[in-house]
Specification:
about 90 residues, mainly alpha, about 45% helix, extended
Length: about 90
């Protein structure tokens, strides 16, 4: 699966590591409403270019998942600042 790495020299490998780290950092640094989005840019860092086959939950199940995810942030990041910002379409 990662045979593309076998033919890379040190400089190419370093460039690839830096590219992947930049992508991971961009995802890690997501905050606010941007936490709730589908992230094809992160998956696009992989060399295999395939359209992800996703299943989209029904609205009721999706919203339960959103509520559970938000509740998990209270446990995982209890000291993170809270924001009252409204969602702004196109801000993602």
């Amino acid at each position: 699966m990662d045979n593309d790495l076998d033919g890379m020299n040190r400089d190419e490998l370093m460039a690839e590591v830096k590219r992947l780290r930049a992508g991971i950092r961009a995802h890690r640094d997501t905050t606010g409403h941007d936490l709730c989005w589908h992230h094809p840019a992160l998956w696009g860092l992989l060399p295999e270019k395939i359209a992800p086959s996703i299943a989209v939950p029904t609205w009721d199940r999706f919203m339960r998942g959103c509520v559970a995810y938000r509740a998990s942030l209270d446990d995982q990041a209890p000291d993170a600042p809270r924001t009252g910002d409204d969602y702004a379409p196109g801000g993602v």
